[in-house]
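Q: What would this chain look like folded?
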Amino acid sequence: MIAVGVIVVLLAAAIGYAATAQTFAPRPPSSPPEVCMDSETRDKLRALMFEGINTAIAHHTEKMFDNLLKDRGHDPARMTRGMHDSLALYARSRENLLKWSPPPC
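A: My prediction, written as structure tokens:
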């Protein structure tokens, strides 16, 4: 009899927990509103992002070549595949940055 009572209490607690968990479940994140800016600020930020992309590809190329020099298996095809993927990402990043146009304030 006590076991049945304990099971009923645990079941009620589980149902209550499930109900409140759905009520307080976090909402999926919505994309933040795009920041408005004047054309001068947009151009400065675009130049800064281009500089960051260029610096990143330069550092990545240096790191890839350094890894190739340390590679005892001497697998230049591995570096070639990695650089191909990196260059494709670099090109897409530049293309998207050129398309980026925040709304004016």
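The mean pLDDT is 80.
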